[in-house]
Amino acid sequence: MDPTPPQQRQTPLTPPPPPIPRQPDSTSILFPFLFFLAIIATVLLPSASPSFKNSLSILHQVPEGHVGVYWRGGALLKTITDPGFHLKMPFLTQYEPVQVTLQTDMVTDIPCGTKGGVMINFGKIEVVNRLSKEFVYETLLNYGVEYDKTWIYDKIHHEINQFCSSHSLQQVYIDVFDQIDEKMKDALQVDCTRYAPGIEIISVRVTKPTIPDSIRRNFEQMEEERTKVLIAIEKQRVAEKEAETIKKMAISEAEKNANVSKILMEQKLLEKDSARRQEEIENAMYLAREKSLADADFYRVIKEAEANRLKLTPEFLELKFIESIANNTKIFFGDKVPNMILDQRLLGNYLQEVSRGVAKMVKVDA
Asked: From start to end residue, where is composition biased (Pro residues) (predicted)?
């Protein structure tokens, strides 16, 4: 056993462990950093460019009619966002809204020289165009955000100069001015379809170009003369129309009178024809009536003749003669009576002559 008492026994001393280093809290670092960023944004954003603001912002809004396009480190990303709120990484990612609805690009102050060497200036040309949403990435990859400067602004200058150099001032200012809109639209669309198929040219509006004052006065005088000629031609046409109208009215009036006369004549003819037919009917009726009367008289005479032929026999005639003589109340005075009464031969001859006359009448009537 150890003779040393317990209270006197000493244990060897060990050094204390080194203190563990304290890990810094992430929130204590993040808050000052964000506070520092807020101070910088407050100071710099009012005077910063839009692109710089877009690079600083985390939450951004894509307006209606646009799509959101993003760059990271200068490289175009394939990410394309629709209208609404979206998030991105500040400083590293830049954002630009690109319009995909109808937009009007106005190209101003376009000088050009005509085929005759006269310098003119188109004050304003408006190009209505649209970028297809499906070709946004390809178009911006090849031509950048200012794609319309390449294919609209610069292209309009080129096409206008090409057009002017192949036409005279008379043609550009008057003769074919109404065709410039369609020619510019077709020229722009052909190249856009070939090299930038996402760009659609809807229409082109070209204003009247500005020409030198001396030439403009000549054109104004020519226009005045042309207007006078047109007015004279129009007056002549009006006079011709009036004469033609008067002629048509006269012809119409004559035709109306002729038609009225024709109708009246036809009416009179119908009346005459009706009267003629009525007279014919009356004549036929009268003729029929007279014929009936004549036939009746003829029949009566025939019948009387037949009756007389049967009745007038010598005996009947002798009787009638005797009755006639008997009815004679004459008184003769003298010593001699007339021989006619007593002459029987004379009486027979007379009766024979009467019979022959009656027979001849009957034959004639038959």
From this structure: 13-22
Strand order in the sheet with 119-131: 103-113, 119-131, 199-206
Name the residue with higher pLDDT: 129 or 320.
129
Let me know: does 98 contact 74? Beta carbons within 8 Å: no
pLDDT at 22: 52
> Position of tokens 């021989």?
339
Q: Report yes or no: 98 and 136 within 8 Å, Cβ to Cβ.
A: yes
Alpha-carbon gap, residue 180 to 207, rounded angstroms:
10
Q: Determine the residue type at 141.
A: L
State the Cα–Cα distance between residues 298 and 292, nearest whole angstrom. 10
pTM for the complete prediction? 0.50
Helix, strand and coil percent figures for the chain, each rounded to 5? 60, 15, 20
- pLDDT tens-digit readout, 7-29: 444 444 455 555 555 555 555 56
- How far is it, in rounded angstroms, from Cα 281 to Cα 113? 101
Provide the β-strand partners of residue 120.
112
**Tens digits of per-residue pLDDT, 235-270?**
999 999 999 999 999 998 999 898 998 899 988 888
Work out the number of other CB atoms within 10 angstroms of the CB of residue 207. Answer: 12
143, 196 contact by CB (below 8 A): yes
Q: Determine the Cα–Cα distance for residues 225 and 272; give it in Å rounded to an integer.
A: 69
**DSSP assignment of 86-102:** EE--TTTEEEEEEE-S-
Say if residues 82 and 88 touch (Cβ distance below 8 Å): no
Q: Provide the sign of the torsion angle of the four alpha carbons 160, 165, 167, 168, taken in this order.
A: positive
